[in-house]
Amino acid sequence: MEFRMLGPLEAWHDGVPVQLGDQQQRFVLVVLLLNANKPVPPARLTEIVWAGRETRPTLVRSYIKRLRDVVGDATIETTPTGYLLRVGEDQLDTARFARLRAEAADVRVDDPRRAITLLRAAVGLWRGKFLEDIDIDRVGGPEVISPDDSYPDVVGDLAELELESGDHRSARDRLRPLVQADPASQKHAALLMRALLAGGDQVGALRVFNTTRDALARLRMAPGPVLRKLAARAEQGDPPSSLPSRPGGFTGRAAEIAAIETAAAAGRRAVWVSGAPGVGKTGLAVEAAHRLRDRFPDGQLLVRLNGFTPGVDAVDVGDALSELLVELGVPAEQIPATVGRKVTLYQTTLWGTRTLVVLDNAASPEQIRPLLPDADGCLAVVTSRRMGDADTGENIRLSPLPPGEAAELFHALAGPARLRGRTAEVAAVVTRCGFLPMPIRVAAALFRRHDRWPLEHLLRLLEENGPWGEADGIAAVRVSYQQLGEPQRAMFRLLGSLPGPDVGITGGAALAGCDVTEARSLLDDLHEVSLLEEAAPERYQMLDPLKEFAADEPSPGHALVRLLDYYLVTLAAAVHAAYPFDRAQLPSTSDRSCPVTPVFADADAGLRWIVAERDNLVAAIRYAAGHALPEHTWRLAVLLWRYFNTTNQFEDWVGTLELAWRIVSADPGNDYGQAHVLLRLATAHDRRGELAEALERAAKALPKWRRLGDPRGEAATLCALAIPTMELGKHEQAIAHLEAALAKYEETEDRRGEAHALSMLGYLNELHGNLQVALHQHKSAARMLREIGHVQGVAHALNNLGSVQERLGLLAEALASYTDAHAHAAEVGDHCVEAYALNNIGNVHRQRGRYAEAVRYHDKAREVAANVPDADLRTQLYLDRAATALARGARQEALTAGKSALDLADGNGNRAYRARAHRGVAETLHTMGDHEGAVAHWAAAEAEFAALDLPEAGEVREERSALSCACGPR
Q1: 803: which residues sit within 8 A by CB, 6+ positions away?
Q2: For the chain, is the Cβ count within 10 Å smaller at the N or the C terminus?
Q3: Close Cβ partners of 431 (under 8 Å, ≥ 6 residues apart)
Q4: Which residues touch 636 (CB under 8 Å, ≥6 apart)?
Q5: Most confident of 55-59, 64-68, 713-717, 890-894
Q6: Are 313 and 338 spatial neighbours (Cβ–Cβ below 8 Å)?
Q7: Beta strand pairing call for 75-79 and 82-86
């Protein structure tokens, strides 16, 4: 006998369908099948199938008797604890499906073809929706755990394997119905787009993307990076690439190129190219990457690590990962704060792709190990002056070019017409260049620019530069430098001391003390003779050997101060445009000026400038700190805080501000700078869940603002004190801070500040059960923020308002508030508030008994929050997932989520969350029958709530008093 539930209920015996009787009899059979090989008490059967209906005592026995005549070689046993349907694993399609899926997972890596066979068999068991002809409410209702969600997962796993094996047509055909049924499923839409692109159907792939994008828009969501990358491929025909153009006139290096191609073909993880400065490491890596485009169709990326760049710190691992993630299509605001989570996201994003990554100018193996792709089918090409280790890839050591290849390169770059019959002279030129590609390129550019020069003149100039050529081929650079006009020479020397990795036209103008037009001309002149590289339109960088040469004569200090003034004044203007509600709290820069500071027309223009100059700004802070420029140090760091906060770049946020604090704290009379730095450090530590550190910084800042007579700064610091104070459970003290802040905000007519303080007071009143007061405060906050057009603030306020409405039983109003909060948060890209809103919508569905919808919204919240490093958010998501799991009978899932919430609350010290987590774990363990295990959690919850003077203490006591088991009061 074979029972089938993956579709309409069916039973088959020896290939013939079996009649299962009337609906009531079918309900009884389904309950037994759902509890296969476990006894079901007659009373429980009656309660499930005939809930609320009067039944005869003999009714269950009569149906069991009829079913015994139906089930064939399966048996229904009468045990002391109920009726037990005994079936083998292969007699039940749900069990067979689970077994096939598990077996496929076991062999997926070692034998993907076997995994495909097993998954095809598993998918073939499905004939429709799980028990689609059965009223689920008559066989267990919310206690029935449907495997319907497993079907799309298995189809996705199978399609992925089929794509990897080259069978894109099978993947396409099985994915289409899934995507039509659920166009908002990004995973399946991405797989279908990959299948269509593999078959050359770019139009079809774009149709899938547009359909999924529209479906997500209805949910106030946007397509993720994988879908966006696939859409870009469909539109442009090329994968995302940050490779520079191929080096012109590339010649030779056939053996080295072949070695890289062989490593790629063999599925190696990395190749490490090492050699002296100017030997052509980067050029080789870029040329190889271009040649391997077809092998790596999902992307070719390049990140410059500045390992040996003069005057510039090596790029740290976190920043390199951020750059790579942005190149891979991950929005900046979704990039995690910690290096560990960045590595996880990076490797996850690469998984299933064939992507090549060039890691240029590595300082050490330690710097690049986290950047090496783990995914099969991906390759990293590393360049460095030093050799790699055994685990960082196959080593390729570059020597100077053979004389013939060096001459061939010079011919290709200088033009053959002027070199016919001059073999000996060309050989002498490349010899003076040390057979190194970089100086050969400089010499060729110089010769090409001076079309009246005979080759002998170039050679004589090279020879006049004596030992330079013998040592490292720098003679060509020196000659090219000597041929420049004085303005170009001055600019070249200044760029040698540049603190950051590159410079834009306006930055160059500030550095040189000229106007933008002249700076553009000077930089273009240097680029023309190969002394600069154009990294992006009107943005230039200098190769390391050239920068070493240029820095041989230090730049005058006043030039670098001009550059720092440019960064400071322009950053202030950009922040003023990008974050208009921060204007009143920005440090003054009126004592500095810069004639070339651009005007930002809108918020987007200001933000684009900050993003483009981000690395230069961090480098400028470090330079200023090391060169006795404290005012530039702390003001740049404070001005950057909002950008780092909104994009979750905690390492540089805290790092730059801690550096600023070390500098500004050395001046005991600088209350103004110290107050600003401490306030922003307090916020950063609070966001990271470091509550003690946040309190310490804010407490130090408060008296400084008071001495300065700055009520806005005082109010902001009182709020910064209130939040960690509240999270540590000192609610009365937090309320006092917030009420004082509210008075200061009212005094200064700061409507945004007023709304923020009111919203926080509303949250605390909600915690203490003062719901009508909280309702009024949140409504007032939302109204104020709407009036001033603060969209992000409105989203926060509506989330808080919805929470109070939910607790008052106003579920329709709460749902409306949460939905509006989600829309506002999505509009401004605030993923933290967006995740809270989605999670809260799920809570409303749980209260309405719509558990499937609740789980769906919790899942969406978890996706949005995946890269938001907010400890409170993560704890709240676990708490609510646990509550929903318990409500629908998924007890083990509820216990796991509850314990995860408890771990997080213990880690960051949030006592209210810890109390709620203890209560949730206690309720779950009680439901599971583990009363002894629950007792400690009941006691901890009650004690913590009582210590916080929260009404939940009485609720827990009342809940326990009704229990007669060990969970009851002792």
Answers
A1: 766, 814, 840
A2: C
A3: 403, 469
A4: 564, 567, 568, 571, 617, 620, 621, 624, 656, 660
A5: 713-717
A6: no
A7: antiparallel
736 near 748, Cβ under 8 Å? no
Q: How far apart are CA 515 and CA 487, in angstroms?
A: 13
Q: Give the dihedral sign, CA 399/400/403/405.
A: positive
Task: Enter the DSSP assignment of 391.
Answer: G
Q: Is there a contact between 576 and 583 (Cβ–Cβ < 8 Å)? A: yes
Q: Are 817 and 801 a contacting pair, CB within 8 Å?
A: yes
- Which residues touch 361 (CB under 8 Å, ≥6 apart)? 282, 304, 305, 306, 307, 308, 309, 383, 384, 544
Helix (H, G, I), strand (E, B) or coil at 940: helix
For 147, 293, 571, 628, 668, the CA distances from 217, given in Å and listed in that order, are 28, 34, 34, 51, 53
What is the distance between the alpha carbons of residues 414 and 426, in angstroms, rounded to a whole number? Answer: 10
Distance CA 130, CA 29 (A): 15
Please check the confidence at residue 471 and state whether its pLDDT lies above 50: no
Paired with 299 in beta bridges are: 355
Give me the mean pLDDT over the 421-431 stretch.
84
| Res. 472: pLDDT tops 60 | no
* Secondary structure (DSSP) of 262-328: HHHHTT-SEEEEEE-TTSSHHHHHHHHHHHTTTT-TTEEEEEE--TT-TTSPPPPHHHHHHHHHHHT
Residue 128 neighbours by CB under 8 Å, 6+ apart: 6, 7, 8
| Stretch 935-949: mean pLDDT | 90
Cα of first residue to Cα of last residue in the chain, in angstroms, is 53
Residues 6 or more apart in contact with residue 414 via CB below 8 angstroms? 444, 447, 448
SS3 per-residue string spanning 721-754:
HHHHHHHCCCHHHHHHHHHHHHHHHHHCCCHHHH
Q: Is 394 helix (H, G, I), strand (E, B) or coil?
A: strand
Return d(Cα 18, Cα 13) in angstroms, integer: 7
Crossing angle (nearest 10°) for helices 516-528 and 486-496: 90
Position of tokens 């999902």?
A: 298
- CA distances in angstroms from 380 to 161, 225, 253, 339, 854, listed in the order given: 24, 21, 19, 19, 42
Model confidence band, residue 492 (pLDDT cutoffs 50, 70, 90): very high
DSSP SS3 for 398: strand
pLDDT at 469: 38
Tokens 């203007």 correspond to 573
State which H helix or E strand residue 119 sits in: helix 112-124
Predicted confidence band of residue 814 (pLDDT cuts 50, 70, 90):
very high
pLDDT of 881 over the 60 cut: yes
| Residue pair 751/793 in contact by the 8 Å Cβ criterion | no
Report the distance separating Cα 853 and Cα 855, nearest Å: 5
Residue 742: both structure tokens together: 């509210």
* Confidence tier at 534 by pLDDT (50, 70, 90): confident
Q: Which two tokens stand for residue 669?
A: 């009379």
Query: Tokens for 662?
Result: 């070390």
- Whether residue 321 contacts residue 337, with contact meaning beta carbons closer than 8 Å, is answered with no
Q: What own/partner pairs with CB < 8 Å and gap ≥ 24 does 178-186 have?
A: 178/152, 179/208, 179/211, 179/212, 182/152, 183/211, 183/212, 183/214, 183/215, 184/212, 184/215, 184/216, 184/218, 184/219, 184/221, 185/152, 185/212, 186/212, 186/216, 186/223, 186/224, 186/226, 186/227
Sequence-ordered list of residues with C-beta below 8 angstroms from that of 730, at least 6 positions apart, any chain:
none
**Tokens 């083998």, located at residue:** 88
Confidence of residue 298 (pLDDT cuts 50, 70, 90): confident
The dihedral through the CA atoms of 264, 267, 270, 272 has a sign that is negative
The structure tokens listed for 538 are 């009107």
Give the DSSP H or E segment for 623. Answer: helix 603-626
Vertex 142 angle, CA 137 and 144, to 5°? 85
DSSP state string for 847-913: HTT-HHHHHHHHHHHHHHHTT---HHHHHHHHHHHHHHHHHTT-HHHHHHHHHHHHHHHHHHT-HHH
